[in-house]
Each structure stands twice: as C-alpha cells, then as structure tokens.
Amino acid sequence: MYSSIHRTAEAAAGRLNRINPELARVFRQSYLNTLDTTVERLADGTTFVITGDIPAMWLRDSSAQVRPYVKLASKDEQLAAMIRGLILRQAQYLLLDPYANAFNKEANGNGHQQDRTEMGPTIWERKFELDSLCYPVQLLYDYWSATGDRSIFNEVVRMMMTTIVDTMIVEQHHDSQSPYSFERDDILLPSDTLPFDGRGTRTNFTGMVWSGFRPSDDACKFGYLIPANMFAVVILGHIESFAQQFYDDAPLAEKAKKLRNDITFGIETYGVYNHPVHGPIYAYETDGYGNYNLMDDANVPSLLSIPYLGFLPADDPMYQRTRAFVLSPDNPYYYDGAFAKGIGSPHTPPGYIWPIALIMQGLTATAREEREALIEQLLATTAGTGFMHESFDPDQFTREWFAWANSLFGQFVLEWLEEKDATVPV
C-alpha cells in the first residue's frame, strides 16, 4: 500500500546510508510513521488520522502529517484516495462545528466532554484555533496542485469553504458578534481555559480574525494571533481562486477577497512592533489596543514558519528581522543549552526544545550549513528511539509517539537531500 511513499523512502534511505547510516535509519522510520501507525481508511471512503498517542483527529495535525506525501499523489492512486478521504472527513467535521479543533472517529463521547462550551459526542475538544480553519484548505490546495483532480471540488467542499469564510468574518468582531466561549474547570495550566467567562481578553477591531487558542492548544494572551492570520491570508487566496474556478461562486470569492485584504491590512497596521534591538518585526499576538506579546512558539503556524506558510519568502527583510528575534534570547521561549538550541513552548516545561521548531528552522533557512547543523542536532536528540518527539531537554523527552514531527522530519531530510544531490555528488 502507498507504493510511491515506500519507493521514495527506500531510495532516499539508500542514498542517506552512504552519508550517515543512522540518519538513513531515523529518516526511514520517521518518514513512514504517519502511514504505518495513524491512518485509517473508513467504510464511507473518508480517512481518519490520529495524532499518535491521542486517539483523536486534529484538523491541524492530520493535515500537517500527510502534507509531506501529497506531491507523490499523482503517481499513486491509493495515496490520492487516502488524501481525498481525509479532505472530505475534515470538511464533514468543519460543517459539524467550525469552532472545534479535534474530533472523534464517531459519536462516542470521548474527549473533554466536561468543558463549558457547546460540546457534542463527535467532538474531542472545542478550542477555537484559527489555524484549524486554514490547514484543511492548504491540504486541499496541495492536493489539487499535485494531482489536478477536479473531483474533489464537490458541494461538501464548497460548503466547508463557505463555513470557514463566514466563521472568520464573525470572529473579526469576536467581542460583539461571536457565539463562542470556552471554559475548562479541571485545568493543569491557566492556558487551558479562557478568562472573562470564557470570552478571552478584549480586542479592538483591526480587520484580523480572533483566535481563542494557539496551535499548541494554549490560550492566546491577546486575541489576534499574527502567524495564524498570515496563514488565513494565504488560504483565503486559495478559496477565492477555487470559488471562481470550480464553483462560479462570485459571492464566496468576493467575501474571501475582502476578508483577505482586511486581514493583511490588520497585520501590517497592528501587528508590527518596532523592537529596540531588531527593528520592525512581527509580534506574535496583539489585541489592537497597542499591547503586544513578543515571543514565538514551536507549534506551526509560528513566526519562524512564515515562508513555510507562504506569506513571505525566506529572504524577505521583514521576515529576516523577525527570524533574528525568534532565534535569539529576546524570544522568551528560545533556549540555548550545552547540547542543543532552539525554540520551545509554554505548553511544555522551561528549557524543553521542540523538534518541530528545529525542523521548521531548517525548512526556512537560506544557508545549507544551517540546515546540515540542524539535521545533526535532530539526529542526536532522539534518545535512541530513532523518532522525533514533541520536546526534549538534556534528560528526557515528551511524547514518544508524535507523528507530525516524524513526517515533517522526513520532508526536511528529503528537501535537504535533493539540494545536496544538486550540488555535491553523493
């Protein structure tokens, strides 16, 4: 099954084995981990993808886990069918509840059913994260770009895109128009719930879209999460194009275009901070009232991931200044230790570095030497398991089974190997 993926894995591992046998081993098992352990094709033709050690499907993680495989879908009908099935299941979930971030395979009542929000038996968790509306559209765009398969653009997908745009428009006016609130009583950290009766801290209208939670599932300090809004700008461009090209839906295209322009204006007007060391940079969060959260988080979308999201190229001066900030001690979640250095997260203990952030640093680096150093660092921090983890410090790691990091590592190594093959004979 998925012969194109296995052929790619074996061919790359063969080349890597001549460079570093341990890298070949880690690459092969990490690259195949999502397909081997998290993907389930269902009787209705859809696909359910768990994150790894949690038996639920996150809209974000499921998209990110399979994204490294999509470009091979044109050569592998089984792979194409799996991805189509995932897109359709994501569409069904978003139509069920666009405010939920994670879902059960069926209406079994698993998950955080005691949270004070509009839960249901198919919903695992209902933390509203703007990026959860973005990832399925990005996966749809990647699939279409790879395969040219027009059949995916059915009525369910059109309804999904309409729901995404309409939800974003409401959340431009969260304080006055949104029905959403969220509170959790059995919290481990304050970031597990939203303050002010579950409505979050107050925001001023900026044109951007409010988000209750970050891609880490931690509550936002300020409601406008800049990297997530950048991602929204990108996917709204896709929705506008799809609405015109496949549905002749002028109202949807126009709404997506206007919303895209609103958000872009908000990012550039309210999301830029003049840092005393780094100069003008993008903030991580703002409230539109002049308050900024200056940090970056390991989870994607992040400021570090701006080129990966497609918002700006890696050599853009604004991105380069922002990147210099997030990869410095001025970012409170950047850790530089004796064995590793990189970005962590308030989601995990202080000092823990995330492989996803190291991989993203490599995917967005402009220098080959930086990428090679990061591969060596990642290879040295698997704790002998041969897999990527959620995070690590010198003594231990979190989450032995974290498929997103494994898939992303596979993508990083493949891109690095392609570059190496193009410049130095292997």
TrEMBL record:
SMART domains reported for this sequence: DUF1237 (SM01149)
UniProt superkingdom: Bacteria
InterPro entries per the UniProt record, alphabetical: 6-hairpin_glycosidase_sf, 6hp_glycosidase-like_sf, GH125
Protein name (Swiss-Prot/TrEMBL): Glycoside hydrolase family 125 protein
Organism name: Cohnella hongkongensis
Keywords of this entry: Hydrolase
Signal peptide as annotated in the record: none
GO MF term set: hydrolase activity
UniProt keyword Signal, yes or no: no
